[in-house]
Every structure is written in C-alpha cells, then in structure tokens.
Design goal:
alpha/beta; EAL domain-containing protein; single chain; binds magnesium ion; globular; 276 residues; 8-stranded mixed barrel; 8 strands; binds ligand C2E
Length: 276
C-alpha cells in the first residue's frame, strides 16, 4: 500500500473510511465512463399551474441510464461526486446540449412552456459557465425568458457579491432565476431582498407532512405569503397526494411539482404528455 510505504499506518483510517473512499473512486470512474458513453441524460418533470391544472413548465433532471436501460444511481449521489471530482463541467455540458436539442424540437412543435435548469455551486463559481453555457440557448433561438435557472442558497453563500453580478448578467440577458429548496439552507431572509429572484421553490420538507404537521403547514403558509409580498412566483416541490395539492392551492401557491402530477420522464414520454 502507498500509505504504508510512505510511513503512514493504515490504522489511521477506519475500515468505513477506506470503504467509503474506495466506493467514491469506483463511482467516479463509473460516472466518467457513463459520461463518455452518453448515458447521463435529461429527464423532465412537469410543473403544474395549480389554478388551471395545465403544465406550464418542466424541470430538467439528470438521470444515469444504465446499459440495460434501467435508471442507475440518483443525481443526489452523482451530482455531488461530479462536483468533487471536476466532472460537473462535462456533466452540465452534455445535459444542456441534450436539453437544448429537446427544447428546440418542442418549440418547433408549438409547445409553450418554461424550462428549469439546476446549476450547482461549482458550476456557478466557474466564470466561463455563466457566459457560455447559457449562450447555447440563445444561439439556438430559444427565448431566454423561457429558461429558468435554479440555484440553491448554498450556491449564493460562497461569494455573494460575485454571485449577484452573475445573476444580474443572466437576468439582463432575459433568463429567469429561481431559488431552489427554500427553507432548508443556511441563508437568511435577507437573501430574498439581495438577489432578483423570479421564483421561489418551497422545499419538499414543508410539503411532505403539510396535512399532519401544523408546524409544516404554518411554515409553508408563511413562505407562500412572503413570496407573494415580494412578487415572486411560488412553486411547491414534492406534492404526492391530492390533499397536499388542495391545501397548497387553498394557500394560494401558484405552481406544483411532484409525483401526484408526474415523475420525471424521458423526453419522448414528455412529448406524449404535452400533446395529450
Ligand atoms: P431538486 O433540484 O430540488 O429537484 C427536485 C427533486 O425532487 C428531484 O430529485 C425530483 O425527482 C424529486 N421529486 C419531485 N417530485 C417528488 C415527489 O413528489 N416526491 C419525492 N420524494 N421526490 C420528488 P432528483 O431528480 O433525484 O434530483 C436530486 C437533486 O439533484 C436535485 O434536487 C438537484 O439539486 C440535483 N440535480 C438533478 N439534476 C441535476 C442537474 O442536471 N444539474 C445539477 N447541477 N443538479 C441536478
Ligand atoms: Mg431544482
Ligand atoms: Mg428543489
Ligand atoms: Mg432538492
């Protein structure tokens, strides 16, 4: 072992730590292989106008499609790995390229919805990313007003001033900005006045037990009212039941997303949903 030859004792590492490290290296190399073979693909989850029941947008979510066509590890696992290993650049490149392809096709078919794209911390910190990644949409004739960039609080904590600059640049080009997973991060409410968001996404944590837990109901209600007072569109994530949909509609929530309406689906499947 390298560590031993350098005079370190393996006893410094617990069995779990070495096992974890080995798993990460394994996952990283499998992810690299999947990226090279085009197996990381965009899936699309509908966003529903709670007043009309219509699909007004979709969130683009990365899926690892394995060789036998089944779905591999979750993005909750491989996005952090890609961030740690620098693969996030290649990952977002292929995601945006494929999504652009799908979006242009849907536009030609007359589909009029918005497209939400997740951007992670390291991607956003990369100066080239913001200028170049989204230029693809513009080059392909996709109206930036139909493209919403989803950022989490953690993305903005890193370098607040630089983040604000980048957001303002993207806004000036017409892109929409959403604050994702609201309520679970470390940022203060002050962030809501600092950044020119268009949309606020209430984290699934406040939706899951909104019926059973008075406190979750109170928080969801307050977030919705706060967002409206700030002229933001509110999206509730993770709606799984009709009761949850009804309560959120009664609270005035604008948009819903969740398994009740649809799971994230492959592009061909979304085409069927949109045409039907
Ligand atoms: P997110 O942006 O908050 O995306 C919403 C997550 O909630 C998705 O998980 C979606 O599948 C899941 N979800 C939606 N409705 C329901 C529901 O009713 N019940 C439950 N239990 N879950 C629901 P997913 O696809 O596993 O993605 C996890 C996270 O990985 C995303 O959270 C996002 O932060 C990140 N991610 C996914 N794709 C990308 C990508 O292309 N780029 C980047 N940078 N991050 C991504
Ligand atoms: Mg998101
Ligand atoms: Mg979210
Ligand atoms: Mg999330």
């Amino acid at each position: 072992y390298k560590a031993k030859s350098q005079g370190l004792s393996m006893a410094f590492f617990s069995h779990e730590m070495t096992e974890h490290a080995t798993e990460m290296v394994d996952l990283q190399s499998r992810l690299r292989g999947a990226l090279n073979r085009g197996l990381i693909k965009p899936f699309y989850q509908p966003l529903i106008d709670l007043k009309t029941g219509k699909t007004i947008g979709v969130e683009v979510l990365a899926r690892w499609v394995t060789d036998d066509g089944s779905i591999g590890p979750s993005p909750a696992v491989f996005i952090p790995v890609s961030e740690e290993t620098g693969l996030i650049g290649a990952l977002s490149e292929t995601m945006i390229a494929q999504a652009c392809n799908d979006i242009v096709r849907w536009q030609q078919e007359g589909v009029q919805i918005k497209y939400s794209i997740n951007v992670s911390a390291r991607q956003f910190a990369d100066d080239n990313f913001c200028t170049e990644a989204f230029a693809q949409f513009e080059r392909l004739g996709v109206d930036p007003k139909t493209v919403q960039i989803e950022l989490t609080e953690s993305v903005l904590l890193n370098n607040t001033e630089r983040s604000l600059q980048k957001i303002q640049e993207l806004k000036a080009r017409g892109f929409l900005i959403a604050l994702d997973d609201f309520g679970t991060g470390f940022a203060s409410l002050h962030y809501l006045t600092l950044f020119p968001f268009d949309t606020l996404k209430v984290d699934r944590a406040f939706v899951t037990n909104i019926i059973e837990d008075k406190r979750q109901f109170a928080i969801a209600k307050s977030i919705i009212n706060l967002a409206h007072d700030l002229d933001l569109v509110v999206v509730a994530e993770g709606i799984e039941t009709e009761e949850q949909r009804q309560v959120l509609f009664d609270l005035g929530c604008d948009v819903g997303q969740g398994y009740l309406f649809s799971r994230p689906v492959a592009p061909d499947f979304l085409s069927n949903l949109l045409v039907a």
